[in-house]
Amino acid sequence: MFAPENKQILVLHEDDLTLGRLQETLLSFGYPATPCRTMQDALSLAADRDFDLALLSLGACGTDSRSFAPPLRHHRPGLPVIVMVPLRDLEAALASLDQGADDYITLPPHPAEMRLRMERILAARDQDSTMALLRDEATGKAGVRQFVAQSEAMRDVAERIRLIAPMRSTVLILGESGAGKELAARAVHCASLRAAGPFVALNCSAIPESLIESELFGHERGAFTGAVARTQGKFELAHTGTLFLDEIGEMNPAAQVKLLRVLEEREFMRVGGVKAIRVEVRVLAATNTDLEQLVTAGRFRRDLYYRLNVVTLRIPPLRERKEDLPILVRLFMEQICRLNNLPSRRISDEVVALFERYSWPGNVRELKNLLESLLVSTPGDILTPLDLPPGIRQPQEGAVPWFDPRPAMSLEEMERELIRRTLEHTKGNRTRAALLLRIGIRTLQRKIARYALR
Questions:
Q1: Contact criterion met (CB below 8 Å) for 172 and 314
Q2: Listed residue (367, 318, 322, 317) closest to 347, CA to CA
Q3: Same-domain pairing of 65 and 186
Q4: Domain tally for the chain?
Q5: Is residue 274 located within the same domain as residue 205?
Q6: Blockwise average pLDDT, block size 10, the chain, 454 residues
Q7: Whole-number pLDDT of residue 402
Q8: Chain centroid offset of residue 237 CA
Q9: Is 403 contained in some domain?
Q10: How far is C-alpha 80 from the chain's CA centre?
Q11: Same-domain pairing of 146 and 191
Q12: Cα(251)–Cα(304) distance, rounded to whole angstroms?
């Protein structure tokens, strides 16, 4: 039996009594139903919420049976539609099938037939979604598809990923904590010729120094206390695929020596082993620290640094890509609600404005964690500024250099002077100036050009 799994159904009918009966019938099947009486209401609901199926009465759609599908699917592409028609009007039902409806039922509906038709369509839709995801993963599209690249900075990243993915070279991914370095590594893997192979990730900072070599290269039985069986390391597990080493700067010197040898010789020995094992693995490494400073301080091998830093990929922090915020918010909210079986929620324009002013020191990870906390712990259909923690709701003090405007200054003169002083304060760093002014970098660039500031 097909499981409803909290499927959301949109029901449109012009008669309140029939609408109520349909809602009760769907609820008995286990389907939460959202009722509406006009096509305009249906379009508004479809624009704000993610429905799995629409049940539409042709009487409420208007006299033209062709008018219902295109507007709905403009908001929700691929939304399955079942039309409801009186028994005497089967000609209109057949016409609606020609114009894009997936199926039809006659009114009043027989519950068993109605359920069977709905479940067949929903099951087919789930199967199509699963197959599409598998095809994307097999062809390397899944990793790149998850990359939100609305901003110019992230479009540059996506283009660089496209260029470096087919190569065999090692890649050093730079960026602050939470900026999305592992997602970038997965995108490189999925767009590469190794996409059919495994993607194996290891966080070097999460492994004790005494175990890092065993994690990387595996160990033989009896190699150390507790080694009760032969175990494969990450290099073996990643054979023919990609190994992602996160926080590479935390790796201890002994492991650095062995990693360098594997990168140069393409072979290694397990801890306690005597036989060399050859592997074909592409290594992607990431760090949020300055490896050159670690090299100067003697904490990271210079030869390993040069071996890893063949190709560099920098992931900008969220404060440098504010244009991506609305898309990221919508994407995360949909994911979180779906995974936690929560109804769809909306976010107010005031919250979006506060998000754009906030500096996001924890980057994308902080944004996702905040949204998850808000969605599972706050009531209501819309997130408002009152739901936000004080650090985001209240403006930061003393962020922008203060100046005393003259009484006769126009707003344009005040804006020009504030931007000029802020650029002086940041020694010409436009990214920092945009952050202090709480505007996007593109907005700042337009204003610099407008006011002829240099």
A1: no
A2: 367
A3: no
A4: 4
A5: yes
A6: 65 88 88 86 78 83 54 67 81 73 83 87 68 46 57 88 89 92 92 89 85 88 79 90 93 91 90 88 93 91 92 92 88 86 85 87 91 88 87 58 61 85 82 77 85 82
A7: 47
A8: 26
A9: no
A10: 25
A11: yes
A12: 11
> What is the Cα gyration radius of the chain?
28
Q: How far apart are the C-alpha atoms of 156 and 146, rounded to whole Å?
A: 15
Residue 233's CB: how many other CB atoms inside 10 A?
Answer: 22
Question: Is-cis flag, bond preceding 108, omega within 30?
Answer: yes
Output the domain CATH number for residue 440: 1.10.10
Regarding whether 155 and 302 lie in a shared domain, the answer is: yes
User: What number of other Cβ atoms are within 10 A of residue 76's Cβ?
Assistant: 19
Whether residue 42 contacts residue 83, with contact meaning beta carbons closer than 8 Å, is answered with no
Extract the tokens encoding 92.
Answer: 């209109």
Residue 230's alpha-carbon distances to 219, 220, 339, in angstroms, are: 6, 4, 37
Structure tokens at 59: 């009487």
Spatial separation of the C-alpha atoms in residues 251 and 258, rounded to whole Å: 11
Q: How far apart are CA 106 and CA 117, in angstroms?
A: 12
Q: How far is CA 81 from CA 42, 68, 114, 146, 156, in A?
A: 12, 9, 13, 28, 39
How many Å apart are CA 87 and CA 107, to the nearest integer? 6
CA distance linking residue 242 with residue 188, whole number of Å:
9
- Tokens 């908001």 identify what position? 75
Q: Which amino acid is at 372?
A: E
Which residue segment(s) compose the domain that 330 sits in? 319-393
> Alpha-carbon distance 252 to 256, whole Å?
6
**Cβ atoms of residues 105 and 58 within 8 Å:** no
